[in-house]
Inverse folding.
């Protein structure tokens, strides 16, 4: 996107909204941290707090259990763990927030993929008594794979280690080294006690050796840009609009949400996968014509030529055209209970396009302890992270996920029942890109 300050108000997307996700192992205190954050920032309604206080008393607690503000499922409250992703919306005078409180148990790592897929920042909690464990590494790896630009290490339960600075320093050093090896661009370590409220919203008097920001202060001030100017300009076509009315007898528009970048009237564009070239004749936004539109606006684009365009096609600048391919090398997070196997027939959904595909190879599975690759595992089980090679029935215009989170991601879906099998990220991640497998014929109409 190359819009000027006059076209797009400065800071409209960069400073008003932050999407962030929380993650951590079981009993590290994620829900308590979120509850404390909401409570101390005055973002809890009176009736909500009263309900939590009543539920806490019924469980024998002396004070309100702030974790109950986010653990809404009965199974979560009974077990004292987070199972599903809980979304919370709150605001301070400085910024609005969309928070995804994700589960910590290894069984629900896949839920973190959902919560962190659109996050600008991830808060990874660590119990100061336990330090960095395997699940901490797993969450750091997921954040790195999803290209979350900012990671906060919240070393919780500092009150249980006498607020000792050496304990915090050791954990921060170990985690930062691991995250750096994963390619995480920025790590901010903050010592906290979610239960006592130390360094969550207010600075802690018990840790005068720490002079950094509180969690809320960092969330309010971290530089986050929703301006996807560095990404490739892309418009996945969602719907073709043809009113065929007396008022609009020849109107043909292509509607969709701009995934990244900017479109202007007069731009030369290419339609993929056909490769036909034309120019933008007009742009309609909210029922009125405009000269320019940018992500994440939903628009209708009119073209100078009548082309055969349908849902799933993509309109891109002719000067920045991805090469459609049927061979996709990617890293996937497997989220289904049933394993993903070599030779499995799947559907691949990329933006608004869904095509048949076959898993040709699973070259490696990531071992989180040392970031090594287990070669040729043959399958990926639930919560596994691994490399796959997929052959699609039709060419797809994917970007590398490193270049665009919006157009470099995809889903693998079970064609039998529509279950999501895996979340994929095209291009290289931790492993080197392997050469695509050659096409082979299959039965039952999956010949490609």
């Amino acid at each position: 996107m190359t819009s000027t300050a006059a076209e797009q108000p400065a800071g409209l997307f960069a400073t008003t909204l932050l999407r962030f996700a929380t993650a951590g192992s079981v009993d590290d205190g994620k829900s308590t941290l979120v509850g404390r954050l909401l409570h101390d920032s005055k973002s809890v309604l009176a009736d909500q707090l009263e309900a939590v206080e009543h539920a806490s008393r019924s469980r024998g607690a002396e004070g309100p259990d702030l974790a109950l503000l986010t653990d809404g499922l009965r199974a979560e409250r009974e077990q004292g763990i987070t199972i599903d992703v809980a979304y919370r919306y709150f605001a301070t005078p400085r910024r609005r927030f969309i928070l995804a409180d994700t589960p910590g148990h290894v069984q629900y790592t896949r839920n973190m993929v959902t919560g962190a897929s659109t996050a600008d920042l991830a808060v990874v909690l660590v119990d100061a008594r336990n330090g960095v464990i395997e699940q901490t590494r797993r969450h750091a790896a997921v954040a790195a794979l999803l290209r979350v630009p900012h990671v906060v290490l919240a070393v919780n339960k500092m009150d249980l280690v006498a607020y000792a600075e050496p304990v915090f320093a050791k954990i921060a050093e170990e985690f930062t080294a691991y995250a750096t090896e994963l390619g995480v661009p920025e790590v901010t370590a903050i010592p906290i006690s979610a239960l006592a409220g130390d360094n969550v919203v207010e600075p802690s008097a018990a840790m005068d050796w720490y002079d950094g920001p509180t969690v809320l202060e960092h969330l309010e001030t971290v530089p986050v840009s929703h301006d996807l100017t560095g990404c490739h300009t892309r418009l996945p076509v969602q719907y073709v609009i043809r009113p065929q009315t007396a008022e609009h007898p020849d109107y043909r528009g292509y509607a969709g949400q701009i995934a990244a970048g900017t479109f202007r009237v007069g731009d030369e564009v290419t339609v993929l996968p056909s490769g036909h070239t034309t120019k933008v004749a007009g742009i309609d936004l909210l029922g009125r014509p405009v000269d320019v539109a940018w992500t994440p606006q939903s628009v209708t684009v009119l073209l100078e030529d009548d082309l055969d365009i349908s849902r799933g096609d993509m309109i891109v600048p002719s000067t920045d055209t991805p090469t459609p391919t049927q061979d996709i090398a990617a890293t996937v997070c497997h989220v289904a209970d049933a394993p993903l196997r070599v030779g499995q027939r799947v559907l691949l959904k990329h933006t608004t396009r869904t095509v048949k595909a076959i898993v040709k190879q699973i070259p490696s599975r990531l071992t989180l302890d040392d970031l090594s690759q287990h070669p040729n595992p043959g399958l990926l089980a639930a919560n596994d992270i691994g490399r796959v090679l997929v052959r699609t029935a039709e060419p797809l215009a994917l970007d590398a996920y490193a270049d665009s989170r919006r157009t470099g991601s995809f889903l693998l879906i079970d064609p039998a029942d529509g279950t999501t099998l895996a979340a994929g990220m095209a291009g290289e991640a931790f492993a080197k890109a392997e050469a695509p497998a050659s096409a082979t014929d299959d039965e039952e109409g999956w010949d490609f």
